[in-house]
UniProtKB/TrEMBL annotation:
Residues 528-538 have a biased composition (Low complexity). It comes from Halospina denitrificans. Residues 554-575 have a biased composition (Basic and acidic residues). This is Probable ATP-binding protein YheS. Belongs to the ABC transporter superfamily. ABCF family. YheS subfamily. Residues 2-246, 313-527 form the ABC transporter domain.
Length: 640
């Protein structure tokens, strides 16, 4: 049991936690959630004994074994396997004792050490370490590579593998899915659900928390709120709590107004002065219930591009790679206005290389890449954060791009990304990774691209900003190619998936749930299918089998013909949903009677113009949706 008792913590002159108490039971898997800078990582430091609180205690049962995931690792000559095994400190201690006993010829000591090694199943440890590495997408050829050979992201995976290798009663993981691809996320979820100890983890990945967490601790207004259930359950429970809190606050404010009115009316009257004084004291004693601030501080959109081409981009028989060696070949694809593509595939398969080629940063080794006249890409990747001018402010970054823009327009735009007041004008030198990521996204949106290439845009972003990005991408009317391990973002913004694997790019005909099932089933079915077909044809009743095969082939061809139209119809449906939602917002705004006053004439004109624009888009989308469905019906009727 982990007990947090009356804990208060101050960092940099600001209180992060104030008199907080929470009890976490053995075996619970607890997600720590809250905005950046609310104290989640600091709580980990206190549990590990690296940081002291101003008040209170954190208590663990005696003899509890802790494991945690380090955020950095220096390069070394240790092999990946040995680095992971180093996390098992008891194993390493016993190995040292065994070596000393063998050197001294102490048979009694040898018997004792061998007994302890048997107790901890030491002989299975190398196999377990390799299984952890394979689960995190390291290949067999990586097992003996030195740590210094791996890039920063892969070293983080090594840290994670080492933490999982440690025998522990309490496991602390800070953003474990950062730098993982979707395949590794699925594997990690399965591993953690089998973990027998208590798990505390910090994450901004909704799907990961939904699948792993049994409880949630929310850091909010210097307090810790404890919820039972996964992240989805937490959102529902918190919404209910905030609704009750808001109702109580409104009732209280009504009562405050009544008391204050009494005081104001009768304070000067001698016969009522005593009653007024008693009400003043009551007002002072009344505990103020804070209003429920449920609105995110982030709200932005990607403005529409001025012009667009159709198609935006075409690649024919393309090959891309480095030093003349192709990494991906036989690439055939079209990127149309409104295309919303998610890239699937393990890290190292070539997703980032593909994006570099699509946006024009990496030339084709062979084949043809053709862009439309008005192809205007916007690109986000983690390395761009290092390319920002740390001595410049967010305001100056946008001013350099558009010298003629007014100060207020720039300030208003930056406000949607959380840069308000002095924050918009201050140097970004001391900004966090999340703040720099927000600025990089703001720079992209400011330039009005008609196609977005986003490579892991949610790393460093907290939940509120991820939600704002999801909403912005949903309303973006241009094309998009997205690489992300954030499945919530993919589910809510992507229509089509391209699978990058086996040296090429193919369309994956399914959603993320189907992709997970596909990953969990070895490709034995694909390998077995030809053999089964051959056996069926050669056996008795061969003509019937051939007939079934012919019908199966015809069905496959029909599905292949219909698939593009189904996807087109689905895309139009999702666009209609977004337009209907915005129309409802506009119509609600038009219901404000004060909008029709002379002073708000310009605002009224803009809303009416937007309403007309949305209605026109709705009409054209409905026509396109009908055409797609008519095409589906024609194909299916023709085959019948």
């Amino acid at each position: 049991m982990l007990s947090i008792e009356n804990l208060s913590l101050q960092r940099g002159g600001q209180w992060l936690l104030d008199d907080c108490s929470v009890t976490i039971q053995p075996g619970q898997r607890v997600a720590l959630v809250g905005g950046n800078g609310t104290g989640k990582s600091s709580l980990f430091q206190m549990i590990l004994g690296e940081l002291s609180a101003e008040q209170g205690h954190i208590r663990l049962p005696g003899g509890s074994r802790l494991a945690h995931m380090a955020q950095e690792v220096a390069g070394s000559d240790r092999s990946a396997r040995d680095f992971v095994l180093d996390g098992h400190t008891e194993l390493r201690r016993l190995e040292d004792e065994l070596a000393r006993a063998e050197a001294s010829g102490d048979d009694n000591e040898l018997v004792r050490v061998h007994g302890e090694l048997d107790n901890i199943r030491a002989w299975d440890a190398p196999r377990e370490a390799e299984a952890l590495l394979r689960g995190l997408a390291f290949g067999d050829e990586d097992m003996d590579r030195p740590v210094s050979d791996f890039s920063g992201g892969w070293r983080i995976r090594l840290n994670l593998a080492q933490a999982l290798m440690v025998p522990s009663d309490l496991l602390l993981l800070d953003e474990p899915t950062n730098h993982l691809d979707i395949e590794a996320c699925y594997w990690l979820e399965g591993w953690l659900k089998q973990y027998q100890g208590t798990l505390l983890f910090i994450s901004h990945d909704r799907d990961f928390m939904d699948r792993v967490a049994t409880h949630v601790v929310h850091f909010e207004h210097r307090k810790l709120y404890y919820y039972t259930g996964n992240y989805h359950s937490f959102e529902r429970q918190r919404a209910e709590r905030l609704a009750r809190q808001q109702s109580e606050y409104e009732k209280q404010q009504k009562r405050v107004a009544e008391i204050q009115g009494f005081i104001d009316r009768f304070r000067a009257q001698a016969n009522k002065a005593k009653q007024a004084q008693s009400r003043i004291k009551a007002l002072e004693r009344m505990e103020t219930i804070a209003p429920a601030h449920v609105d995110s501080q982030f709200e932005f959109r990607f403005p529409e591009a001025d012009k667009v081409s159709n198609p935006l981009l075409t690649v024919r028989d393309g090959a891309v790679g480095y030093d003349g060696e192709p990494l991906l070949s036989n690439i055939h694809l079209n990127l149309m206005p409104g295309s919303r593509v998610g890239l699937l595939g393990v890290n190292g398969a070539g997703k980032s290389t593909l994006i570099a080629m699509l946006r024009g940063a990496t030339p084709l080794l062979s084949g043809e890449r053709v862009t439309g006249e008005h192809f205007r890409p916007g690109y986000f990747a983690q390395h761009q954060l290092d390319e920002l001018d740390v001595d410049a402010s967010p305001f100056l970054h946008l001013r350099r791009l558009t010298p003629g823009a007014s100060d207020q327009v720039i300030r208003n735009f930056l406000g949607g990304f959380g840069f308000r007041g002095d924050d918009a004008m201050a140097s970004i030198r001391n900004c966090s990774g999340g703040e720099k990521a927000r600025l990089a996204l703001a720079i992209i949106a400011w330039q009005k691209p008609n196609v977005l290439f986003l490579d892991e845009p949610t790393n460093h972003l907290d939940l509120e900003m991820r939600q704002a990005l999801t909403m912005a991408l949903q309303s973006f009317e241009g094309a998009m190619v997205l690489v992300s391990h954030d499945r919530h973002l993919l589910r809510n913004t992507v229509d089509t998936f391209w699978r990058v694997a086996d040296g090429t790019v193919t369309e994956f005909d399914g959603d993320l749930d189907e992709y997970e099932r596909w990953l969990s089933e070895p490709r034995r079915k694909e390998a077995a299918a030809p053999a089964q077909d051959a056996k069926a044809v050669s056996g008795d009743g061969g003509q019937d089998q051939q007939g079934r095969q012919s019908r199966k082939k015809a069905g496959a061809e029909r599905r292949q013909k219909v698939a593009p139209y189904r996807k087109e119809a689905k895309r139009h449906e999702q666009a209609l949903e977004r337009i209907n939602a915005e129309k409802a917002e506009v119509e609600e705004a038009l219901g404000d009677t004060s909008l029709y006053e002379e002073a708000r004439k310009d605002e009224l004109k803009k809303l009416l113009a937007r309403q007309a624009e949305l209605e026109q888009k709705e009409e054209s989308l409905e026509e396109a949706w009908l055409e797609a469905n008519e095409a589906i019906e024609a194909i299916e009727a023709g085959d019948d």
